[in-house]
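Continuing the batch. This is chain 6 of the set; chains 1 through 5 are on the previous pages. Same settings as before, nothing changed between runs. Recording input and output for traceability.
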Amino acid sequence: MSILGGVTASQTIFVEAQDERISYDSTAITGPAWELVPPSADACDTPQMLSNRQGDYLSFTFTGIGVSVIGTKGVRQGLIDFYVDGIWNTTVDRGRPQLMCDEVLFEMSDLYKQEHTIIGMLGGLGINPETGEEDGVSPVQRLKYTAPDDPQ
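Output for chain 6:
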C-alpha cells in the first residue's frame, strides 16, 4: 500500500513507430506495404511507418490502463479502423486540407489493468481535397500507453 492510501502513480510510456514492439502486417496475400519514412517536412520531421494499401495494419500489445495512437492528418489520409482486444471500436477519417502533425488519432482510457492489443487498420481511402479522388495512407508517428506503477 502506498503512502497515498492505496493510490498508485501511473507512468506514460512512448513507443516510436519503428519500435520492434509494434508489428506491421497485412490482410493481403502478398504481404504488407509498410515502409519507414525518414524525417522530412512532409513527415512532420519525425520518422513514420507508412502504408497505402487497404488492409495493412499495425498491432501493439501492452499491459496498461490507457493507450493513444499518434499520427498525422492531412490531404493524403485514409480511414483507420481501430480495434481493442479484437473488438471494433471506431473508424477515424484523417482527411484534412493541410498537414497536421502529432495528432491523437485514437485514445482509450479506463481500461482494466491487464494485457491489451490495439490494432489500427487502413480500412478505406479518403477523398483528397486537392484532386477530388480517393487517396489514402496510414502514417503512424508513435504510440503511448499508461501503465500504473505496482504498489510495493
